[in-house]
Target: Electron transfer flavoprotein alpha subunit
Amino acid sequence: MSPVVVVVEHLDGQVAKPTLELLTLARRVGDPVAVVFGAGADALAPGLGQYGAAQVLSVTDPALDDFLVAPKAEALAQICARLQPAAVLFTSTLEGKEIAARLAVKLGSGLITDATDLAATDGVVTTTQSVFAGNWTVRATVSTGAPVVTVKANATAPEPAPVEATVEQVEVSISDAAKTARIVSSEPKKESGRPELTEAAIVVSGGRGTGGDFSEVEGLADALGAAVGASRAAVDSGWYPHSYQVGQTGKTVSPQLYVAAGISGAIQHRAGMQTSKAIVAVNKDPEAPIFALADLGVVGDLHTVLPAVTAEVQAR
Ligand code: FAD
Model:
């Protein structure tokens, strides 16, 4: 089978869960080749091998750490020229999308963003996307060159397929033209102790119905080991940081369970959460549009319902 390049996201010696999902999808269309930027490929390789990456390419040019995305796109273009992959896969993060777009231009091929599935028929890679606020499902192929695809976190469950992973150090040559935007400093986000919103298996979101008090939303999130999200009405009111906004102009999440508390279910909010596997809505208005989408609807005051559910979960 043809190689499929998977760009690895890693932090503090850990492979991010969406990368394991990419490896799982990559195996459907070819043989995954994991590309690790920066130090640590040796330590990461066994974990990548667990999910089917027999080949791990380690790229450690200092320009990759010192500059924004352009050197990574250049390095990947050189790797693709050598491997002639069937596809190149990224997680749908802001950085992933930017590198993917630059790479697609360099390869003269097509870019598909926010895919939720991949398949191969007669060697042609087909992607699935949910578009127009989730109202349409699109299957697409790229007609020229290797498709460059970004895939939404939680698109699939990671499935192990253990192989022995060998690490190869790859030398790349980064041009001066790619060394334009230098990273001056970077600081880790303050730890909330909760999972990252776009990667979490469970998300509990609050809206205007919280009245500005997110403690009950956070309480349930912590009882469930979930991430916290918010509607735009809540973040625009200054009740929760913008980086937690779910929706068309916020983050797209696709967890196993999404709890919408005091959220009406406007189409722009739905655009960011409607591919969740199970949706639970808590709303005091029985006519709220969110109930049309919910697998389980609770008509009630969130200030009563959330603490009761939290206590129940904690008691188990
Ligand atoms: P509301 O619509 O006001 O709903 C509040 C709900 O809480 C109501 O259903 C009410 O019955 C319920 N409620 C009130 N009190 C309680 C209680 N005590 N217990 C239980 N339920 C209660 N929105 C987003 O969320 N994300 C986006 O990315 C986004 N992008 C947008 C982009 C554009 C271009 C535009 C025009 C809008 C966008 N919006 C977005 C805004 C969107 O249209 C809605 O205004 C917003 O989602 C509403 O947020 P909400 O559901 O919290 O508030």
